[in-house]
Amino acid sequence: MNTIKLRLLLEQFFIEDIGDRDVTSELIFGNGKTGSMVFLAKEDGIFCGEQVINTGFRLMDENCQVNLIAKDGAHVKKGQEIATISGKISALLKAERVVLNLVQRMSGIATKTHQALSVLDSGKTRICDTRKTTPGLRMLEKYAVRCGGGYNHRYGLYDAVMIKDNHISFAGSISGAVETVKSSLGHMVKVEVEIETEAQLKEAIESKADCIMFDNRTPEEIAEWIGTVPKEILTEASGGITLENLHSYRNCGVDYISLGFLTHSVKSLDISAKVIPE
Fold first, then answer.
1. Catalytic site residues?
2. Distance CA 6, CA 180 (A)
3. N or C: which end of the chain has fewer CB within 10 A?
4. Are 109 and 226 in contact (CB under 8 A)?
């Protein structure tokens, strides 16, 4: 994870939440009183957010002490301690909500990714994410997918070519779109083509795409069509795949399955912050 970017993100999130000052904490505790708190898991799941806890609290109090008990990707049980933090009380309370919000969401994504991997239970096919992330949180959410055992698809529009249905409609054909792209593209950037029909699959293969995505195709259709794809072309399934039907794609033969629900509708893992009595 880019720690410089993380720090900048946290600064913006704290500015949004604190504004000019935390009226409540500053009036009650001033700037001198110190204390400690503990992060506790309130349900079972996969923890993710070490760097957020470390960086977030130290932005508020550079002298605070952070003890991370759980590591990113670790299974945590209900009631388990995740981290303890000691420092100025006003700083702890300023950072608490923003840090918790992020850690809960990242842990929820890691937990859902791990669950998807368990449901798929495949030795061949990898689970990956999509661009259906929360604006501003993509780096953190994609990191959480990795902590859950998944893989990252492209990060944005800039690091890979992905020719989707609307690109094809505007361009007039898959071959025309691929040819135009490859005439100017650097050799380090891959080209993926989204297909929905056998005719499009044939055209994508003939165009020498690096990766072919089977969009909204059933496992049976994919298993039937995939035999025509050369081994050097990667394959991906996406669209209409849920946790409930994911297992049916186990033996369809694709290299990757991309799942939007890992990030766009995930439930945060329940984690709380409690004061440690002196």
1. 97, 132, 164, 194, 215
2. 37
3. C
4. no
C-beta separation of 194 from 225 below 8 A: no
Q: Which pair of tokens denotes residue 40?
A: 């506790």
pLDDT tens-digit profile of 132-173?
999 999 999 999 999 999 999 999 999 999 999 999 999 999
Residue type, 256: Y
Task: For residue 156, count CB atoms less than 10 angstroms from its CB and return exposed for 0-12, middle for 13-18, buried for 19 or more.
Answer: exposed
Query: For residue 23, what are its two tokens?
Result: 């009226």
Contact (CB, 8 A) for 49 and 103: yes
Alpha-carbon distance of 195 to 174, in angstroms, equals: 9
Domains of the chain in start order, with CATH, are 3-110+267-275 (3.90.1170.20), 117-264 (3.20.20.70)
Structure tokens at 113: 């990714």
Residue among 66, 52, 27, 61 at smallest CA distance from 110: 52
CA–CA dist 145, 134 (Å, integer): 13
Distance (Å, whole) CA 142 – CA 159:
14
Q: What 3-state class would DSSP assign to 70?
A: coil
Q: Do the beta carbons of residue 104 and residue 42 sit within 8 Å?
A: no
Q: What is the 3-state secondary structure (H, E, C) of 141-166?
A: HHHHHHHCCCECCCCCCCCCEEECHH
Q: Report whether 238 contacts 215 (CB < 8 A).
A: yes
> Tokens at residue 233, please?
């072309």
Residue type present at position 112: K
**Beta carbons of 207 and 233 less than 8 angstroms apart:** no
CA distance 134 to 131: 9
Contact (CB, 8 A) for 36 and 267 = no
